Amino acid sequence: MVDPNAQSSAVQNLKQRTARKGASKGGVVMTTQINESELEAQFAATIGAKDRIEPRDWMPEKYRKTVVRQVAQHAHSEIIGMQPEGNWISRAPSLRRKAILLAKVQDEAGHGLYLYSAAETLGASRDELTEKLIAGKQKYSSIFNYPTLAYTDVGTIGWLVDGAAIVNQVPLCRTSFGPYGRAMIRVCKEESFHQRQGYELLMTMMRGTDEQRASVQESVNRFWWPALMMFGPPDDDSPNTEQSMEWGIKTHTNDELRQKFVDMSVPQAEALGVTFPDEGLKWNEERGHYDFSTPDWDEFWSVVKGNGPCNDQRVAHRKRAWDEGAWVRDAALAFAENSAVDSAPTDSPETPTADTADTTAEEAAK
Ligand code: BYC
Fold first, then answer.
1. What spacing in Å lies between the alpha carbon of 73 and ligand 1's midpoint?
2. Phi/psi at 224 (5° precision)
3. Of 145, 189, 192, 206, whose CA–CA distance to 164 is shortest?
4. Least confident of 3-7, 99-103, 178-182
5. How far is CA 327 from CA 129, 323, 340, in A?
């Protein structure tokens, strides 16, 4: 059960714990009240020392809301992100490719579950967050509103989408909220594997026929700009970055990570033998980075607002799966409740009650 008052009980906990520290001196019980500003100072000191904020620690309500917002959006992205690639499981070109794709899509489900669990530590249940997603009150990554038109897209998603996710998520391993950072460590390991499998798939195709090479280039052309948009709006149009950086929820800005991704991807594209669809893409000796053109931010905002090519389809599919899975969740809950009753502590067998004594006698008689 999630405690909807997690925040207030966290405050209570901290107040009680701190009160207990100086409580019993010479048999006199002293009560100490910590006021809000002391709690804020402790929170600021933890953030300043780059230590973790844990679920039971006091935190400003806005911090809690920001973490829940970002973690929920991240969790939703993992789960909705299963759809574009899942689309190709039944049409994978070989048993090997099918097994790889199945495993990858399952990994994404696992990532979603770690993240929903992290949000749950702050009092936001998975049910509540999923209902918000379905009602359009919470977002998921814009990238998953683009269609997968060819099996080749599985490789491109692995290379570019998981690649962008790694660039974004490796710094999140050090995010200030403990459960989120710890979840990211395993997620990043798996995403690195996903990225390599995507790159390997595309490399295999590039060594194939002209038609396969053309398919890779066509797929990369479609995914390049949406991949750059995954990092969010430009810094001067990002309302959350400044505060999230102050709180250590984010450790890099959207533009910093986007640049890192471009710098990392260009040599990989060269090794693969494809180009990115950007005539402005060139090395800038002075900056020590690649220059690139401005993504179409109107398109980005339109997709984020629900008008991308697949928004309706993605959310409708998620709703269908959620509704059709209700009986499974109910059954799992009933099973867990029954198991908890069954494994509840009983009387010691050395002092049998009338009931157990009867059973033992019956068993002996069999
Ligand atoms: N798409 O102030 P900003 C994966 C929203 S899945 C949609 O910069 P923030 C995978 C933003 O939420 C991994 N919306 O926000 C799975 C905000 O709106 P609200 C996905 C976006 O939070 C399956 C508004 O725009 N990764 O790897 O400071 C298969 C203003 O933005 C997007 C994550 O979720 C977007 N791209 O920074 C394969 C990473 N960008 O919420 C692979 C975790 C922005 O105020 N998230 N918005 O209404 C983050 O790191 C940050 O939330 C962001 C945005 C950098 C994305």
1. 7
2. -60, -55
3. 192
4. 3-7
5. 19, 8, 20
- Tell me the pLDDT tens digit for each residue of 112-162: 999 999 999 999 999 999 999 999 999 999 999 999 999 999 999 999 999
CA–CA gap between residue 13 and residue 143 (Å, rounded)? 41
- 141 within ligand 1 shell (Cβ under 6 A): yes
pLDDT reported for residue 33 = 67
For ligand 1, mutation pick of 102, 107, 138, 141 (most atoms within 8 Å of CB): 141
166 Cβ inside 6 Å of ligand 1 = no
Query: Which residue from 62, 65, 69, 77 has its CB within 8 A of the most atoms of ligand 1, so it is best to mutate?
Result: 77
Whether 230 contacts 126, CB under 8 Å:
no
Please calculate the CA angle 306-308-309 and round it to the nearest 5 degrees: 135
Q: In whole angstroms, what is the distance from residue 11 CA to residue 74 CA?
A: 27
CA gap 13, 16 in Å, rounded: 5
- Distance (angstroms) between ligand 1 centre and the Cα of 226 equals 12
User: Number of helices (H) and strands (E), helices first, in the chain?
Assistant: 16, 4
pLDDT band at 359 (very low <50, low <70, confident <90, very high): very low
Segment 347-353 shows an average pLDDT of 49
Indicate if ligand 1 lies below 6 Å from the C-beta of 84: no
pTM higher than 0.70, yes or no?
Answer: yes
Ligand 1 neighbourhood includes 118 CB (under 6 angstroms): no
Ligand 1 atom with the shortest distance to the CA of 241 = 28
Cα-to-centroid distance, 197 and ligand 1 (Å): 24
Q: Atom 49 (ligand 1): residue with closest C-alpha?
A: 70
The mean per-residue pLDDT over the stretch 248-271 comes to: 98
